[in-house]
Amino acid sequence: MTYEEHIRKELLHWRKKMLKTPGLLEKGSKAIQGKINNLYPQKFLDALTGTIKRLVRGVLFGLEYIPKGKPLKNMDLSVRDLRALEVLKTYKRVAAAEGAGTGAGGFVLGIADFPALIAIKLKFLFELAHIYGYSTEDYKERLYILFVFQLAFSSQQKRPLVYHKLVHWEDTVKDYPQSQAMEKFDWEQFQVEYRDAIDLRKMLQMLPGIGAVVGLIANYGLLEDLGKVGMNCYRMRILQEKGLY
Questions:
Q1: What letter does residue 138 receive in the DSSP assignment?
Q2: What pLDDT does 181 receive?
Q3: Extents of the domains making up the chain
Q4: Cα separation of 55 and 47, whole Å?
Q5: Which of the pair, 194 or 242, is modelled with greater confidence?
Q6: 84 Cβ partners below 8 Å, 6+ apart?
């Protein structure tokens, strides 16, 4: 079995995970998350919503996250995967250190951790795109990154829709022309799903005494989740282009 055949089997297993129907546990967790959201101060929710909207706009129309150098071309998928894992390892350490530092500072620094963590995640995805050979100077690739981010932090109820958009990317991107992307992209769902995906872990980060430890573990785990989804999305695209998926 070739490496690409092995990855194809992994992707088929991953697809089942992305498309599975939410169970009682997922539905119960969603209800609990709704109650948790009511515990947040409104200024915290407003700050988070504003941060996510600003970063979404920045990713779509800005160039600040584009890595230096050209995307990697003419490289085996196995080599790309190794490089991706190396970069992910670095970003997990950065996120963990950032989470530990802000977690030690209580509520105020806990709020500051949200935009910092989002920026770390986005920078990681930009580097990941280049590793797999896609130029983030292309607006369509920056849009793809947003959907990858959304898939990683969506509830199981919303994941199948986002997954299908990524699987059928050439059709999806036609619905989001650059001049209308901000109006058509559902950033409200984007920020709600993201907030719900991380809220319990991040809320514990703000507690005195344990915030630093929780912040370290939470940020490390969130980057781990994003890394798995990001790598699989780009693996899927490469295999699709070769007619193997």
A1: S
A2: 77
A3: 3-241
A4: 12
A5: 242
A6: 128, 131, 132, 227, 230, 231, 234
